């Protein structure tokens, strides 16, 4: 479904150059749960952002169903970012002045989901009673579940998760991982990066990044 072909990415800051990805290739089949592990600074976030259409690699290609993401026109790549992939981040990235419901509605917009599907998904994630609360009123577990619902509300084919349990206690981590597992059991594909060993328990494949190289 997704093919990452020989991608490299360097960041230049002043006189310093940081190699984030060095000739990385990875094939992701539909239904895969791939965990990418590696120390901090090994390129994990850059890899996810590249796959998600957010960072253009210096060289190499990301192919989604055979189509090169970085050769799509702006309309197509926007559709890819909003419809084909869903993102969950360690820092949640909820919009503080929007409620739980509004944060989710924002990404669901224009996708013609039938009315009520947001409520149904909130219910499944034990968030329905909180739908009118603001992020500042939520516990960390609730914030991350909200971010998860936002990521999957448009039925993406692939969920990209960047250290999604990094700020969660063990109980909330387990709840989130069960939701991710359920997403996959319903036909979804997962690419998760983490340095926490327990999140990889659910993966059918574990790959390691070290200094931008995939081992
Ligand atoms: P990880 O997610 O594994 O911690 P990253 O992809 O965030 O790794 O970073 C990989 C390398 O690229 C690191 O050396 C990091 O310092 C560098 N890097 C990441 N983002 C930037 C940036 N915006 N500017 C400069 N260097 C960056
Ligand atoms: P956790 O230990 O998981 O971080 P919290 O103590 O933050 O949990 O939150 C416990 C409960 O209190 C949650 O249901 C949350 O919605 C509610 N809550 C937390 N902070 C606020 C707040 N500022 N205003 C209203 N409700 C809040």
Automatic annotation (TrEMBL):
InterPro entries: AAA+_ATPase, ABC_transporter-like_ATP-bd, ABC_transpr_LolD-like, MacB-like_ATP-bd, P-loop_NTPase. The keyword Transport applies. One of its GO terms (cellular component) is plasma membrane. SUPFAM superfamilies: P-loop containing nucleoside triphosphate hydrolases. The keyword ATP-binding applies. Residues 2-215 form the ABC transporter domain. Coiled coil: none annotated. Keywords: ATP-binding, Nucleotide-binding, Transport. GO terms for molecular function: ATP binding; ATP hydrolysis activity; transmembrane transporter activity. PROSITE patterns: ABC_TRANSPORTER_2 (PS50893). PANTHER family: ABC TRANSPORTER ATP-BINDING PROTEIN, IMPORT ATP-BINDING PROTEIN. This is ATP-binding cassette domain-containing protein.
């Amino acid at each position: 479904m997704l093919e990452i072909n020989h991608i490299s990415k360097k960041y230049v800051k002043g006189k310093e150059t940081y190699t984030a990805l060095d000739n990385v290739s990875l094939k992701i089949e539909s239904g895969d749960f791939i965990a990418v592990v590696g120390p901090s600074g090994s390129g994990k976030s850059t890899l996810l952002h590249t796959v998600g259409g957010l960072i253009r690699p210096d060289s190499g290609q990301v192919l989604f169903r055979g189509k090169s993401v970085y050769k799509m026109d702006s309309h197509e790549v926007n559709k890819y970012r909003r419809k084909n992939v869903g993102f969950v981040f360690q820092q949640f990235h909820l919009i503080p002045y929007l409620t739980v419901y509004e944060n989710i509605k924002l990404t669901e917009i224009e996708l013609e989901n039938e009315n009520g599907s947001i409520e149904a998904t909130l219910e499944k994630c034990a968030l329905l009673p909180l739908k009118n609360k603001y992020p500042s009123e939520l516990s960390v577990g609730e914030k991350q579940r909200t971010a998860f619902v936002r990521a999957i509300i448009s039925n993406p084919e692939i969920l990209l998760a960047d250290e999604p349990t990094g700020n969660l206690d063990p109980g909330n981590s387990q709840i989130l991982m069960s939701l991710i597992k359920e997403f996959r059991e319903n036909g979804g594909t997962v690419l998760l990066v983490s340095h926490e060993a327990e999140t990889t328990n659910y993966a059918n494949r574990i790959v390691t990044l070290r200094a931008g190289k995939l081992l």
